[in-house]
Amino acid sequence: MNRDDAWALLNLYLKKDAMLKHSLASEAVMKGVAQKLGYDEEVWGITGLLHDIDFEMTEDKPEKHALVAMDLLPSDIPEEMRQAICRHNEANGSVRTTPLDFALSASESLTGLIIATALVYPDRKISSVRVKSVTKRMKEKAFARNVSRECILECEKIGISLDSFVETGILSMEKIAPSLGL
């Protein structure tokens, strides 16, 4: 599956602008992490793009989220991508085990913290966000309270320090900031 096909598929199932932007941000961060670690950027990027394909269908049923996605994804999508998409949501009983699993969980969570941080700045731009600001916000439980700090820290399971991971996330999202409206 190429990126254009993945984007078209995603748009069949996600209609909310915020979810599409989250998917784009997740794709960008996953590509940045793949580049940093020497993995296939297209595979990791598409995995990030499609990870929440079923979210609008399962929003009120977290135990079903990512399981429904398995039926929406084409049968020829690589198994490592299918499994990472399924495993990013441990509420469905999945357990993360691979670098792709941990990277997806950490990356998609980090996007929320970076965006929330950008939105408190007067210019509301990712280009204004600094690593120190994000890591400081990590400690504030009330800030972006739905963002899992534990998932973000899974970056360490793939050999990336928190500061380096946050820097990769900011730089990756800054490349697509106009698409995110930030």
Structural notes for this entry:
- With 182 residues, this protein is mainly alpha-helical.
- The chain has one domain (3-180): Hypothetical protein af1432 (Orthogonal Bundle), CATH 1.10.3210.
- It contains 11 helices and no strands.
The portion of residues forming beta strands comes to under 5%
Oligomeric state of this protein = single chain
Count the strands?
Answer: 0
Cα Rg: 15 Å
Largest sheet: none
Work out the helicity level. Answer: 55-70%
How many domain regions? 1
Order of helices and strands: HHHHHHHHHHH
Q: Which structural class best describes the helix and strand composition? A: mainly alpha
CATH class: Mainly Alpha
CATH topology call: Hypothetical protein af1432
Cα separation of the termini: 29 Å
Q: Low-confidence spans: pLDDT under 50, at least 5 residues?
A: none
Corresponding CATH architecture: Orthogonal Bundle
Number of helices: 11
In short:
The protein is mainly alpha-helical. It is 60% helix and 0% strand.
Summarize the helices and strands and which ones pair or pack.
Layout: H1 3-13, H2 17-37, H3 41-50, H4 55-58, H5 69-72, H6 79-87, H7 99-119, H8 131-138, H9 149-152, H10 162-174, H11 177-180
Helix pairs in contact: 1-3, 2-3, 2-7, 2-10, 3-6, 6-7, 7-10, 8-10
What attributes does this structure have?
182 residues; mainly alpha; Hypothetical protein af1432; 0% strand; globular
